Amino acid sequence: MDYTVEREDKEYRGYKYNGFIDGQVAGYVVGFERKLDIFDIQHSELEVPFRGTVAVRAFSEIIKAVEKDYKYIISRIDSEDNAEVKIVLGAGFRIIGTMAIGNKVSIELLKVREGN
After folding, report:
1. Cβ atoms 56, 87 nearer than 8 A
2. What does the pLDDT look like over 94-103, one tens digit per residue?
3. I need a labelling partner for 56 at 20 to 30 A (CA). Which of 3, 82, 90, 104 fits?
4. Helices 82-90 and 55-67 sit at what angle, rounded to 10 degrees?
């Protein structure tokens, strides 16, 4: 997979990782950099041709690109979105907790890059 990174220069460091499979845009993740080598995903989306049975592969490839820059990747998903939870777990994340804001519960997931 090829990828590009769009960086914003603000108080926080926000990045968008665009993933490409066979020259076609597969999707992206948007997030910001935290201290301690952490990338905090705020939003992700896969293009229609990369949803369904190829979703885990497409998302995993985008995450591999993020892992080149960060050791830790955090994601939060609505607790009722089982399909997205399965995709993220399939990409090697593990559940580390839950977060409740108002009447919405999110599942917090973490992926730790293996090796250095």
Report:
1. yes
2. 999 999 989 9
3. 104
4. 50
Q: What's the length of the chain? A: 116
Q: Where do the domains of the chain lie, and which CATH numbers do they carry?
A: 2-112 (3.40.630.30)
Q: Which of 92, 5, 96 is nearest to 56 (CA)?
A: 92
CA–CA separation, 28 and 25 (whole Å): 8
Determine the Cα–Cα distance for residues 116 and 106; give it in Å rounded to an integer: 30
Q: pLDDT tens-digit profile of 48-67?
A: 999 988 999 999 989 999 99
- Statement: residue 5 has pLDDT above 80: no
Nearest one of 19, 28, 11, 31 to 72, comparing CA atoms = 31
User: In sequence order, which residues have a C-beta less than 8 Å from that of residue 100 and are 6 or more positions away?
Assistant: 106
